[in-house]
Structure formats: structure tokens, C-alpha cells
Amino acid sequence: MPTYPGGCYCREIRFEVNAESKDLRTSMCHCKNCKKFTGGPYGITTRIPLDTFKVTQGTPTHHKADNGSGTLLHRLFCPTCGGAIAEWGDPVDDKLRYVFTGAFDDMEQEGLKPQGEFFTSRRASWLVPVEGTFQKREIKE
């Protein structure tokens, strides 16, 4: 089974994902929440089964907040450098984690290429769709 190592910028937090590439799904999200959190034009995370994710070094900070829709959103990040590690909502708390794809050591590993884009109706006008990905267009806010 392939191992996908990663961590924060300062390397205080390290993690591993041990999963088959078929069990991973990397997606870009153009929603307002992802843009605001990442400070960029989209967020990009890799959905993984919870039992494949293990923090191997350090203790990430766990922050919980309402995401504006009534769902509690959890985020793990480094307490030293602030590097984002993972996020998830209460509905998938015991099943999945969404690891910020940039936190992996090698984003070129098989299984980490984006497979889809969400909230494409909110994509910045100067961005183009990623070729070969599914496009999910939700209604603008």
C-alpha cells in the first residue's frame, strides 16, 4: 500500500496517509469559505478515509467553527507556522479527512492529481477549468 507523507512548512507536524490511490480523491473548491481560508482563488484538498491518516510527529492545533451553514467545521493546523493540515465537517467526522493537498511532500504522487472542481460558478474569471476533471457548478451566493 502506498504511503503519502506530508506535514507543515516548519516540519513540526508530520503525517502519513497509507492508502491505495483509488481511495483518494483530490478536488479543487471555488467556494467562498475555501477562498477565505486559503487566501487564494480556490482550496485544494484530498479526501481520504479516516483510518488511513496518522499524525506521526507533533500535535496539530484543532480548531472548530460553524462554516455558516450550521455545520461544524474542524481544521488541523500547525501551532508554530500555521500550516494547514486537514479539515472535515461533522457529518463525516468518523469517516473521512480532507488533507490540504499542498501539505503532502510530493503532490505529483499517483492519486493526488485533481479529479474534480466544485462551485465552478464561483471560479475566478481569470482561471480556466482543469482539463480532464469533472465540473460541479453550484448556484452563486
UniProtKB/TrEMBL annotation:
SUPFAM superfamilies (UniProt xref): Mss4-like (SSF51316)
Gene3D superfamilies: glutathione-dependent formaldehyde- activating enzyme (gfa) (3.90.1590.10)
Domain CENP-V/GFA: 4-127
Keyword terms of this UniProt record: Lyase, Metal-binding, Zinc
GO MF terms, alphabetically ordered: carbon-sulfur lyase activity; metal ion binding
Pfam families associated with the record: GFA
Annotated signal peptide: none
Cited PANTHER family: CENP-V_GFA DOMAIN-CONTAINING PROTEIN-RELATED, GFA DOMAIN-CONTAINING PROTEIN
Family: Belongs to the Gfa family.
Official protein name in the record: DUF636 domain protein
